[in-house]
Amino acid sequence: MSDRATRQAFRRGVRDGAPFLLVVAPFGLVFGVIGVEAGLGLAEVMGFSIFVIAGASQLAAVQLMAEGAPVAVVLATALAINLRMAMYSAALAPHLGSVPLGRRSVMAYFLVDQTFAASALEFERRPEMTAPEKAAYFLGVVAPVCLPWYGATLAGALLGGGLPPGWGLDFAVPITFLAVVTPMLRTPAHVAAAVVSAVGAVVLWALPWNLGLLVSALAAMATGALVEVASERRGAA
Amino acid sequence: MTLSTLEIWIVILALGAGTFLIRFSFLGLGDSAHWPPVILRLLRYTPVAVIPGLVAPLVLWPAATDGVPDLPRLAAAAATLAAGLWLRSPIWAILAGAAVLTVLLRIEAVV
């Protein structure tokens, strides 16, 4: 490994991560505004973006808290949204597993959709990279993706209270969620899971503590996996 | 917000710790980490399994109208969905939904 190759990998990461700024900045802004509108203080809004650093789960937590859901339900639902990151962690472990533990912990903290997507693509494209180079690339993507997240949240939180009512701001949460999830509907399995999730949550809406959402989420995960297996069988036959 | 400040911080810190453990899981175990493929297959669907269920009741029964279905919000959700599927870009989807909602709410306010 040479220092030069490591620095080049870092710079490639910065360059590949930069376009994600267009997604991360508005999302952070929306979370900041929504958090303040829901009645959170500035420190609490920033606490979410710094300690959790996962926008969709943060929005879900704030939405459920505003609806008066119990703490356990808020946590279960928000953590369920983040379970996908275990898959990211599993996919990157063969590439980054030999890096020292401290550095792996830092990368785990910054393991978000965008840093995963860029890194997985790069590591597939350049299998000859060493583990330290791969780590440098990952941290390069972190710079334009994760650091602006804090600033955008802060800007949204400061702006939040100043926005006029009657602009349908209440609906920013569903719109943001829909915008995040629809580009993920790439395969019949993803579509089937989404339909089961939406229909199930509406049908089971009367269950206490938002349990209907958790039940339909489990059913939707199973549906997605089953449809995937079925389409693989069809493809293989 | 009905939760106390203490409860809010419990949510923040527990969600932060839990999310970190999820992210750390396999990276923490190192390059020898292996889980059964069936688990990974299920994990692949977590966002599309949770988020639509979260959104559907919010769209059908908006809090702002006391749970009465509302044309501007239904139309905005449809526009977001259509733009997201068509353009595959979250930003354009948000802009489409926000534009439809803003225009229809203005019209509703005038009429």
Automatic annotation (TrEMBL), chain A:
Q: What is its main location?
A: membrane
Tell me the superkingdom of the source: Bacteria
Q: Which residues cross the membrane?
A: 20-40, 135-159, 189-207
- Asked if the record carries the keyword Transmembrane, the reply is yes
UniProt entry keywords in alphabetical sequence: Cell membrane, Membrane, Transmembrane, Transmembrane helix, Transport
Subcellular location(s): the record lists: Cell membrane
What is any one GO biological process for this UniProt entry? L-valine transmembrane transport
- Asked whether the keyword Cell membrane is assigned, the reply is yes
Q: Name one GO cellular component term.
A: plasma membrane
A Pfam family matched in the record: AzlC
Query: Membrane topology per the record?
Result: Multi-pass membrane protein
Q: Which InterPro entries match?
A: Brnchd-chn_aa_trnsp_permease
Mind telling me which PANTHER family this protein's record contains? INNER MEMBRANE PROTEIN YGAZ
Q: Which family does it belong to?
A: Belongs to the AzlC family.
Full protein name:
Branched-chain amino acid transporter AzlC
Tell me the organism's taxonomic lineage.
Bacteria, Pseudomonadati, Pseudomonadota, Alphaproteobacteria, Rhodobacterales
Automatic annotation (TrEMBL), chain B:
- Under which name does UniProt file this protein? Branched-chain amino acid transport protein
Which keywords fit this entry according to its UniProt record?
Membrane, Transmembrane, Transmembrane helix
Residue stretches spanning the membrane: 6-30, 42-64, 76-105
Keyword check for Transmembrane:
yes
